Prior knowledge:
Elements: H1 23-35, H2 47-60, H3 64-67, E1 70-71, E2 74-75, H4 82-98, H5 104-112, H6 114-135, H7 153-170, H8 174-177, H9 183-200, H10 205-237, H11 251-273, H12 275-287, H13 294-307, H14 312-321, H15 329-346, H16 353-356, H17 360-370, H18 376-406, H19 410-419, H20 429-452, H21 459-487, H22 490-503, E3 510-513, H23 517-527, E4 539-544, H24 546-551, E5 562-568, E6 577-583
Parallel strand pairs: 3-4
Antiparallel strand pairs: 1-2, 4-6, 5-6
Helix pairs in contact: 2-4, 2-23, 4-5, 6-7, 6-9, 7-17, 7-21, 9-10, 9-15, 10-11, 10-15, 11-12, 14-17, 15-17, 18-19, 18-20, 18-21, 20-21, 22-23
Amino acid sequence: MPSNDPRSTPARLTTPATAKLPRSFLLLLGVIYIFSGLFFRDPWKTDDVAGLATMLTALHGTGHALLLPQIGTLAYAQNGPLITWVGTFSIWLFEPLFELFTTPLDAAIIASRLPNLLWFGLLLWSVWYGTYLLGRRPEPQPLALPFGGEPTVRDYGRMIADAALLLTIATVGILWRTHETSEVPALLAFQALAFYAAARMLDRPFSGAITLGVALAAAFLTRGWIGSLPIMAAAACLCAPRSALWRAKHWFIVSAVICAAFILLWWIPADRVSPYWTHNWWLWNIDSFTWPRYRVVLGILRDLPWFLWPTWPFALLALWRWRSWLFAPHIWIPAMFLLWPLIIMLCLADPFEPEYSLMAVPSAALAAFALPTLRRGVVNSLDWFAVMCFSLTSATVWLGWIALQTGWPHQIANNIARQTTGYTPRLHLLALAMAGIITVIWIALVRWRLYVKPQALWRGTVLSASGLVVTWVLLVTLWMPALDYIRTYRPVSAQLAAALHEYQKPGECLRAFDLGLGQRASFFVFNGIKLSYRPDCTLILQQTTPRQVARGEEAFADPAAARVLWTGGRAADRQELFRLLRVQ
């Protein structure tokens, strides 16, 4: 149990360090963060366009496509149906409105991303309020000063919650993932909701248990066992005998019942509608788990520090500084939500960013509780590191854009040209003006830190979160046309659709060979191209590489029996080639 001796607390803080951060600043920063890069671009492979494809299939396809996610004729038996439900409803409701201003396809793309605003709002609210509930408890309170001057419980909890929210925004790895039409934004939101529910159970166990059950079920319906098992395992360990939630252990049974009920409400009709889909769903989930492997562990150790930057060093520091208070709720709850995603990740065959994302919220919450334990000199050093780091990244974005537009510096321009083959740079004055404004705001923020010298402990998190947002806005405003050109499949999909219009005979089916999921989803989204699984289809869409074609290694059958009708690909991708073939 935590020590009752207040002198053992590692937190040392005075009232000026918990000065209130304006709510308008937090709101503005969150709005800029989520709106930048969310609209006015094409969906990119793989998760982004696959999520949209399931929504369009559910909206325009067969009835069971809403219950069981599909991409055209492909059973997408990987994730759950929740984001498909919400996205389909959003497209159905808002697409007619957006069609007044743009094409039907672009209207559907815009409408499909509106749920991201809901997921992001739920994420930030849950992180803030969950951390606030933990921060105002007696265990994390700073040392009482001999003559007073320590912050009030409310001010201290609010400062910790603000820091956790800002550190969540500052996490580098989730920046792009929160802007894509995939399961990751929803999964992040439901994990954060489970975190809040656990904190709420400390004082209101009934409402906390209900919220926890809903969050666990929603996580399962979002990403199956891979996404929900880490959250469920963490929730199960929260009521360990020495933890503060041990007294509320019977309420976890209520959460489990609610979770199971919601899951069965989907699973039973799903299994009756298509046993084939549910069987493949089980196989995919089971096959995703394996014994820890050397290469997987090395990959996690290599990628995870970059993904969780800058929160993970502070999260580890919090665990060390509060080691005598390990079972205190403000450490135990986020530590369990941090530990179990890592454990489950080690047992996955191919863990990557969707799995890494589950460590972002608890890492930010733990990092926030490390801040009151730092000396002032260390905090100042971190402030200047954030200033230098994000000033450098912003300058790099500007330098790259100048090279793209003018061809100078030559070496940088040549490197960019190799990655953007065929792209013609255009000067967008509105985007340039927005980039200039956001750069001036960053300079003003740095000047504020130089001359005002604030004592508030949240100043470093403000600089980190603002710096990342500034860099992101610069990328969106200056580089989005080039990035969209590199990553979109819209032009090659239109070429393929034109070729099919010319060569496909009435009633002739088209099947795929070596075609990736992202490419399949892109062709369906942009031009409604559906691929059959019939082995007797005489039209074949093949994905290969120019090198394989040059070496004669691309044939899947007798080359003499196949006639090439069309070849195409993205100009910026020299390793990808599509061929439309007719076999005899």
